[in-house]
Specification:
- It comes from Streptomyces thermoviolaceus subsp. thermoviolaceus.
- The chain has one helix and no strands.
- It is mainly alpha-helical.
- The protein starts with a helix and ends with a helix.
Length: 64
């Protein structure tokens, strides 16, 4: 009987540890998602700026 209770307690502790790790993974995945979204916005802004700069450079080249 003692070993059965030890086994149940050990499995409960194991599940609690897995739950803590699952929460940490979830939090890190959300953080990564926010960083990816922010990076995508930065890339989009940089692409727009590059497009505006290339149009301006093309106009300058034509005037030469």
């Amino acid at each position: 009987m003692f070993w059965a209770m030890v086994a149940v307690a050990a499995s409960s502790v194991g599940l609690a540890v897995l739950a803590v790790f699952a929460v940490q993974v979830f939090v890190q995945a959300r953080r990564l998602g926010r960083q990816v979204a922010e990076s995508a916005q930065r890339i989009s802004r940089a692409a727009e700026e590059l497009e505006r700069a290339s149009v301006s450079a093309a106009r300058s080249a034509r005037s030469l």
